[in-house]
């Protein structure tokens, strides 16, 4: 992903005209339940269609991880675009190689799709421009996209970005911290929180392992912490969370930093 970032001031002023829900409300939503799969009767299978002024978004969900099919359909007169499992002749299917998650929402001439599951404490998303069906941008956000502003020929997003580096701020020292600062624009001094973030994640992992054991050992926590040290926990690549504003247009996406590191932790 060819992206350039721009360091902004740390004043986190809200963008004018942004509603609490960043997406446009569909004119109509339809859910069509599908017959149960005899091999997996507990799975909830259905087709969902979201009708907007310029497009209908179809999501076929067979109860697995990620939708079975994501597609765009034209708006037929009188809301006559059907909502069914059948693939229509005029249906544009988003290739599973391109994206295999779920539909999230529409804003102006852009559709948003979420990843099927999370990574590093965030959730991936993809932005697709409807007019030419061009995927514009992919990233990972913590707590979802906070605000979207549709401009004349561009789109602005604001969210807490989840960024995975290529080194460990704890294990690899000052060189890694300098590289992370250069890659993201966050102040290197804000990476002082990394030591506490790694320690907290290690503690949570050890407690989780102990809780999963059928028979609790007396020294379980210290044993699990020791095992994590043996597994080189501190060598895991560093994940930073920081607030950004991203501008999408026909040019290269521009990621503008709006805060220094809000969190620092090891990758999954």
Terminal CA distance reads 21 Å
Number of domains: 2
Q: What overall form do the CA principal axes indicate?
A: flat
Tally the beta strands: 14
Structural class: alpha+beta
Q: Quick one: biggest sheet?
A: 9 strands, mixed
H-E string: EEEEEEEEEEEHHHEEE
Gyration radius (Cα, Å) is 22 Å
Mean pLDDT: 90
- State the assembly state of the protein chains: single chain
Q: How helix-rich are the residues, as a percent range? A: 10-25%
State the helix count. 3
List keywords for this structure.
single chain; 268 residues; alpha+beta; 2 domains; 9-stranded mixed sheet; 5-stranded antiparallel sheet; 16% helix; 37% strand
Quick take:
With 268 residues, the protein is of the alpha+beta class.
Write up what this structure looks like.
The chain is of the alpha+beta class and about 270 residues long. The chain has two domains: about 150 residues, no CATH class; about 80 residues, no CATH class. Helices cover about 15% and strands about 35% of the residues. It contains three helices and 14 strands. The strands form two sheets. Strands 1, 7, 8, 9, 10, 11, 12, 13 and 14 form a nine-stranded mixed sheet that branches.
Can you lay out the helices and strands and say which pair or pack?
Blueprint: E1 4-7, E2 28-33, E3 46-51, E4 56-61, E5 69-73, E6 92-93, E7 102-107, E8 110-119, E9 122-129, E10 134-150, E11 155-164, H1 173-184, H2 194-212, H3 220-230, E12 238-248, E13 254-257, E14 263-266
């Amino acid at each position: 992903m060819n992206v350039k970032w721009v360091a902004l001031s740390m004043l986190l002023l809200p963008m004018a005209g942004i509603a609490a829900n960043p997406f446009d409300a569909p004119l109509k939503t339809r859910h069509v339940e599908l017959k149960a799969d005899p091999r997996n009767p507990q799975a909830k299978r259905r087709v969902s269609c979201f009708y907007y002024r310029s497009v209908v978004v179809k999501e076929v969900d067979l109860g697995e991880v990620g939708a079975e099919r994501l597609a765009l359909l034209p708006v037929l007169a009188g809301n006559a675009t059907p909502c069914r499992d059948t693939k229509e002749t005029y249906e544009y299917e988003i290739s599973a190689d391109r994206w295999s998650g779920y539909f999230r929402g529409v804003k102006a001439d852009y559709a948003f799709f979420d990843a099927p599951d999370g990574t590093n404490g965030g959730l991936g998303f993809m932005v697709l421009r409807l007019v030419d069906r061009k995927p514009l941008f992919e990233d990972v956000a913590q707590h979802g996209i906070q605000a979207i502003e549709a401009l004349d020929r561009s789109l602005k997003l604001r969210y807490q970005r989840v960024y995975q580096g290529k080194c460990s701020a704890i294990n690899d020292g000052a060189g890694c911290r300098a590289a992370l600062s250069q890659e993201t624009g966050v102040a290197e001094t804000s990476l002082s929180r990394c030591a506490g973030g790694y320690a907290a994640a290690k503690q949570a992992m050890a407690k989780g392992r102990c809780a999963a054991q059928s028979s609790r050992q007396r020294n379980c926590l210290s044993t699990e912490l020791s095992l994590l040290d043996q597994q080189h926990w501190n060598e895991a690549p560093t994940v930073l969370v920081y607030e950004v504003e991203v501008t999408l247009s026909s040019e290269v996406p521009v990621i503008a930093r709006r805060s220094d590191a809000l969190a620092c932790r090891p990758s999954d």
